[in-house]
């Protein structure tokens, strides 16, 4: 069983136990004896079964089980200890066990709430609040059932409630206040003289585009979605003038995967101010990384990118040889976009398909009709990629894969989630059952270039209640906090930095660090065994633990966030900062 499915199983059992305890309590209050005893038996079994799931989770990593062991464990023991013995005596008047059963229900439900609303790390405040909730609910139920609460019980309740109020406030305080992120403009970009310069102007505005036969409202660069394809040869200087015609939310250009100097990174409020309607901003940097990248607005990025403010950036080592095709996949107004592209390819011509996932969720790509190699991932060439046949690749949000092959005499077709997006003729192949390539075991290995790490960080991804805002929200959290309260990762220039990313939630988080490519060291404790993988975007699936590392060689303040942009907006953004 994977850790992801264990997390689900444990949650389901916890919900079942809670519902059965509460149902049993209600049934006995209503003197429905067989129903009450039946539900209580289910509850008892479910509560005991959690000992198994929680132990298994703890073995996968403390992050997955911390609050379950520290808070749910004792509360469940209390539930079984209080309700169990009374059930064994099964009194003549079944109503006598109503309160113990309800108590058990409150204990398991408040432990459940701790997991759902607070998660990792477990805190004393959360534990005390949970206990206070149980005590309060039990006292109220006791009154309703006509039981006289004893003096001691009332006193204990009071003490717990006061302690919970005092320490529970710790819940709303970020673990270690976050140093302020500097705002406004960075230093002016260094003049780069005497180099061939590629100049582009991107004017952003509201527009209408044809999405598969339906005219939809979009936000576009130069009236087109995707925006113009920006190309350069390595060594060129790119100079891109961004103008905002009428995008009220403001915009910027972020060069996804391109490790530009910090002041060119396009993160509003961190490296520059958002460009407002009528304003412009000039980006200038040297194209010194070869490969497939993309650009997109980083201001209101979730809606901005979804509406169409993105485009392709390709830097080639020299003149194009053979067929070199970019395939940026997007979903516009709920429809796959753009329309499938069909072209001729003469047999024997070398083809490079540059696949770019510009959506917020993973896509499954299959290339049918030919063997191929994955030449590069996230712009970086792989070492010794071997030919693949009838194999799918999963590309995370923001990620890029370059597939290469020599055009066969027969047609080839590229499908994304079962839909053809590129072809050289009709291909009918059933590809749904093809195995998926694991990039961590593909290509030829090379030793990790570092043997020690100067800094290590752990990011535990989850969901939780964020009380720091005026309106409480159910945020996507990192280490129990949501943007802007997640403490930054502080490094020094030259440090070798390792960080571990743990996903305790039920959804995929495509992780994306700006300004650096990270080398994958291990996943779920298994060292990466293929070509070195230098990524800027990687999917951390539910229950997974990734270990990655990079050298801190690009000073500045860099966003480090989930590239499901809705998650990033809902709290899952932090920063890497050079001291
Ligand atoms: Cu492609 Cu911070 O984003
Ligand atoms: Cu996410």
Please tell me how large the radius of gyration is: 28 Å
Number of helices: 8
The strand count comes to 31
Structural class: alpha+beta
Give the integer mean of the pLDDT values.
Answer: 92
Overall outline: elongated
Low confidence ranges: 169-179, 182-190
β-strand amount: 25-35%
The proportion of residues forming helix, as a percent range, comes to: 25-40%
Give the distance, in angstroms, between the N- and C-terminal Cα atoms.
42 Å
What summary fits the major beta sheet?
A: 7 strands, mixed
Bound molecules: CU-O-CU linkage, copper (II) ion
Can you offer a commentary on this structure?
It is a single chain. With 579 residues, this protein is α+β, with helices and mostly antiparallel strands. Helices cover 27% and strands 31% of the residues. The chain has eight helices and 31 strands. It has helices at 3-29, 33-60, 62-89, 98-118, 124-145, 151-168, 301-307, 565-569; strands spanning 197-211, 214-221, 230-233, 237-244, 254-256, 280-286, 291-296, 310-316, 323-332, 335-337, 341-342, 350-357, 363-368, 373-377, 380-381, 392-395, 400-406, 413-416, 419-423, 455-466, 473-478, 489-491, 496-503, 509-513, 518-523, 526-527, 534-535, 537-540, 545-551, 557-562, 573-578. Strands 20, 21, 23, 25, 26, 27 and 29 form a seven-stranded mixed β-sheet that branches. The longest helix has 28 residues, at 33-60. The radius of gyration is 28 Å and the shape is elongated. The two termini are 42 Å apart. Residues 169-179 and 182-190 have low confidence and may be disordered. The structure holds CU-O-CU linkage and copper (II) ion (CU).
């Amino acid at each position: 069983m994977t850790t992801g499915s264990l997390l689900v199983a444990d949650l389901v059992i916890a919900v079942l136990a809670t519902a059965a305890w509460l149902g049993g309590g209600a049934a006995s209050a209503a003197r429905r004896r067989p129903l009450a005893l039946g539900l209580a038996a289910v509850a008892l079994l479910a509560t005991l079964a959690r000992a198994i799931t929680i132990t298994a989770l703890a073995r996968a990593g403390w992050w997955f089980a911390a609050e379950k062991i520290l808070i749910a464990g004792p509360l469940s023991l209390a539930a079984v200890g209080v309700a169990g013995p009374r059930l064994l005596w099964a009194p003549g008047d079944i109503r006598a066990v109503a309160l113990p059963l309800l108590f058990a229900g409150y204990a398991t439900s408040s432990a459940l709430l701790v997991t759902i609303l607070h998660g990792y790390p477990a805190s004393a405040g959360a534990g005390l609040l949970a206990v206070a909730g149980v005590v309060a609910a039990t006292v109220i139920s006791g009154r309703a059932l006509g039981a006289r609460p004893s003096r001691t019980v009332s006193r204990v309740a009071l003490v717990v409630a006061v302690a919970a109020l005092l320490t529970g406030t710790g819940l709303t305080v970020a673990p270690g206040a976050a140093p302020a992120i500097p705002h406004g403009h960075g230093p002016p970009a260094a003049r780069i003289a005497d180099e061939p310069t590629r100049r582009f102007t991107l004017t952003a505005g509201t527009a209408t585009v044809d999405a598969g036969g339906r005219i939809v409202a979009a936000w576009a660069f130069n009236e087109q979605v995707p925006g113009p394809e920006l190309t350069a040869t390595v060594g060129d200087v790119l100079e891109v003038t961004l103008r905002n015609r009428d995008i009220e939310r403001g915009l910027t250009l972020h060069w996804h995967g391109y490790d530009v100097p910090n002041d060119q990174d396009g993160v509003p409020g961190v490296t520059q101010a958002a460009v407002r309607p009528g304003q412009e901003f000039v980006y200038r940097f040297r194209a010194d990384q070869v490969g497939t990248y993309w650009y997109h607005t980083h201001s209101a990025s979730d809606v901005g990118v979804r509406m169409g403010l993105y485009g392709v950036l390709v830097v080639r080592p020299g003149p194009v040889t053979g067929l070199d095709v970019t395939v940026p996949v997007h979903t516009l107004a709920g429809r796959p976009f753009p329309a499938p592209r069909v072209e001729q390819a003469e047999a024997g011509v070398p083809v490079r398909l540059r696949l770019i996932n510009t959506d917020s969720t993973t896509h499954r790509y299959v290339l049918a009709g030919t063997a191929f190699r994955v030449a590069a991932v996230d712009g970086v060439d792989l070492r010794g990629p071997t030919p693949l046949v009838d194999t799918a690749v999963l590309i995370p949000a923001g990620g890029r894969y370059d597939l290469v092959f020599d055009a066969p005499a027969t047609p080839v077709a590229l499908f994304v989630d079962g839909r053809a997006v590129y072809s050289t003729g009709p291909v009918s192949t059933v590809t749904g059952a093809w195995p998926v390539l694991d990039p961590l075991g593909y290509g030829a290995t090379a030793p990790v270039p570092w043997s020690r790490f100067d800094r290590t960080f752990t990011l535990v991804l989850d969901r939780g209640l964020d009380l720091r805002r005026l309106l409480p929200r159910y945020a996507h959290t990192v280490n129990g906090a949501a943007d802007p309260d997640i403490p930054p990762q502080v490094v020094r220039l030259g440090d070798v930095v390792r960080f571990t990313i743990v996903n305790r939630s039920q959804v995929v988080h495509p992780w994306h660090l700006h300004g650096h490519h990270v080398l994958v060291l291990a996943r779920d404790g298994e060292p990466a065994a293929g070509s070195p993988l230098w990524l800027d975007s990687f999917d951390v699936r539910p229950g997974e633990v990734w270990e990655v590392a990079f050298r801190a060689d690009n000073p500045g303040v860099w966003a480090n966030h989930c590239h499901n942009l809705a998650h990033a907006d809902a709290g899952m953004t932090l920063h890497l900062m050079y001291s």
